[in-house]
Amino acid sequence: MNKIFAVAAASLATFLAIAANAPAASAENNEFLYSGSGNVLRATLYEHGNMGGHAIYYFGSGNCTTTTTDNDFSKSSMPGSLWNSWNNQVSSYRDYANCDVKFYDGTNFTAANTGWLNGGSAGRNLSSVWNDRASSFRVS
């Protein structure tokens, strides 16, 4: 019985050591999202302010519609996995092809939102209130 306990304790200690050294969740890679034919860049979301760091590139089938009463694209949760998540990581953005972007504090488009934003191809930083807060987004 002591041998089983010793093996279990050693396994637990190894697991805890690995978990302690694992990187915190962060946007460590670029992500590419597509809808339709995916041949037109519609939005780029950046990890850092001033369009810096890694990015999420979203491509769609041409220009967005001229109204924001419909959604050309919706992402109910930010891409990535537990160790490489974009949740609460976006700090700046660009939009193209007549598109606007709306960010939500919660997944599935819940909680507070930014309203429709248009940063254009020059891009904009999210406000200090919205920096590293987005959990889902829409493009229209």
Main attributes of the structure:
disordered N terminus; globular; alpha+beta; 3-stranded antiparallel beta sheet; 5-stranded mixed beta sheet
How would you describe this protein?
With 140 residues, the chain is α+β, with helices and mostly antiparallel strands. Helix content is 14%, strand content 31%. It has 1 helix and 10 strands. It has one helix at residues 2-21, and strands at residues 31-34, 40-48, 52-60, 73-75, 80-81, 84-85, 92-95, 101-104, 124-125, 136-139. The strands form 3 sheets. A 5-stranded mixed β-sheet has the order 1-3-2-7-9, with no helix packed on it. A hairpin with a 2-residue loop joins strand 5 and strand 6 (84-85). The N and C termini lie far apart (63 Å).
